[in-house]
């Protein structure tokens, strides 16, 4: 039997009760998350140093401050995000109200990677909570100190119906990443320590597109370098594969300049309203004005052929202009 079945059922019951839908509840949870980041800053810095040897400067900037800003931005804008979004109507629905309502999905799962173990857990959690969801969180087992911190301290700030934490202890990912070092030639780094699950930042040169390091998301401190003859070959190379997580071009030609984040299933992530929208179901709604229902009789059986032209004209959208390609 799945050991998490009971917890998921409990969270679903909590969500169905409607408690997470109010603006007040969402704000209270976001404020609690902000207090966690403020009051436990030193503990968080220690955990990140133990897991990743992150300097306090980098950890505070890229993990704590970024998450705090995300919390504050969500609180400041939550009312506007939650409001129904009214949309354009055609003549057939002019007497009605057409709008999009942002409904929470319900219970959502957030799985955190180890490279930014706080940032990539809490930023999507902000969006999920802001959108009115209950959240199950599975931090990375590899960044074990940060995982322990999240499991033990975060629930003391948030409603216990909202977070849940799983734990998987093994060296599976270490062995997977270490095996990728066999691709190409190690130009820099390459040191590993199995006892500490440590792999030094590594640059791989002379990598072939068919090698394992180019066939999957790495999620590790490995940078494979693929040599490309020209811009056209680079474009063909990218277009022949799934969209990458990130891409950097190195060239002596100053006209060659590109650097960007992926647009497929793996990417930098969503922030602010984009995160809220990610965890919301945009439900199309039409509020019928019953007092004026008699004006809609043309749409209902028994049909009259003379009504067809009138209805078609009410739905017809005219093209406003033309576009000429030169």
Outline of the structure:
This protein is an alpha+beta fold and 326 residues long.
Shape: extended
Mean pLDDT: 80
Helix content: 25-40%
For the biggest sheet, the summary is: 3 strands, antiparallel
Separation, N- and C-terminal Cα atoms:
65 Å
Poorly predicted regions = 162-169
DSSP strand (E) fraction?
15-25%
Q: Any idea what the radius of gyration is?
A: 26 Å
The SSE string, one letter per element, is HHHHEEEHEHHEEEEEHEEHEH
Biggest sheet, spatial arrangement of strands: 1-2-12
Family: Belongs to the aldehyde dehydrogenase family.
GO molecular function, one term: 3-chloroallyl aldehyde dehydrogenase activity
Pfam families: Aldedh (PF00171)
Organism: Sphenodon punctatus (Tuatara)
Would you mind describing this structure in some detail?
The chain has 326 residues and is an alpha+beta fold. Helix content is 39%, strand content 15%. The protein contains ten helices and twelve strands. The chain has helices spanning 5-16, 23-39, 41-52, 56-82, 119-130, 144-153, 172-180, 231-239, 272-278, 305-315; strands spanning 85-86, 97-104, 107-111, 134-138, 185-188, 192-193, 198-199, 202-205, 222-224, 246-248, 259-261, 280-287. It has a three-stranded antiparallel beta sheet. It has a three-stranded mixed beta sheet with strand order 5-8-9, with no helix packed on it. The chain has a two-stranded parallel sheet with strand order 3-4. Helix 3 runs antiparallel to helix 6 (144-153), helix 4 (56-82) packs parallel to helix 5 and helix 5 packs across helix 9 (272-278). The longest helix is centred in the N-terminal third of the chain and has 27 residues, at 56-82. The radius of gyration is 26 Å and the shape is extended.
């Amino acid at each position: 039997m799945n050991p998490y079945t009971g917890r998921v059922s409990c969270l679903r019951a909590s969500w169905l009760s409607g408690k997470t839908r109010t603006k007040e509840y969402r704000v209270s949870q976001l404020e609690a998350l902000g207090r966690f980041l403020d009051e436990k800053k030193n503990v968080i810095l220690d955990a990140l140093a133990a897991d990743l040897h992150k300097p306090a400067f980098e950890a505070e900037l890229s993990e704590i401050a970024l998450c705090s800003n995300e919390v504050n931005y969500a609180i400041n804008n939550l009312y506007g995000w939650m409001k129904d979004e009214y949309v354009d109507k055609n003549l057939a629905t002019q007497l009605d109200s057409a709008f999009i309502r942002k409904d929470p999905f319900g219970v959502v799962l957030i799985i955190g990677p180890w490279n930014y173990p706080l940032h990539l857990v809490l930023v999507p959690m902000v969006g999920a909570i802001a959108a009115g969801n209950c959240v199950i969180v599975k931090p990375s087992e590899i960044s074990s100190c940060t995982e322990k911190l999240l499991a033990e301290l975060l629930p003391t700030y948030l409603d216990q119906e909202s977070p849940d934490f799983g734990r998987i202890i093994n060296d599976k990912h270490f062995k997977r990443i270490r095996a990728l070092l066999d691709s190409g030639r190690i130009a820099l780094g390459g040191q590993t320590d199995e006892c500490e699950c440590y792999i030094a930042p590594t640059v791989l040169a002379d990598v072939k597109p068919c090698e394992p390091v180019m066939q999957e998301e790495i999620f590790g401190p490995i940078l494979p370098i693929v040599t490309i003859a020209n811009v056209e070959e680079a474009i063909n190379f990218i277009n022949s594969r799934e969209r990458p997580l990130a891409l950097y071009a190195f060239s002596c030609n100053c006209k060659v300049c590109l650097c960007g984040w992926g647009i497929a299933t793996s990417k930098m992530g969503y922030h602010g309203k984009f995160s809220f929208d990610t965890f919301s179901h945009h439900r199309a709604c039409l509020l019928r004005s019953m007092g004026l229902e008699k004006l809609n009789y043309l749409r209902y059986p028994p049909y009259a052929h003379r009504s067809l032209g009138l209805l078609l004209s009410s739905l017809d959208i005219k093209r406003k202009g033309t576009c000429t390609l030169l």
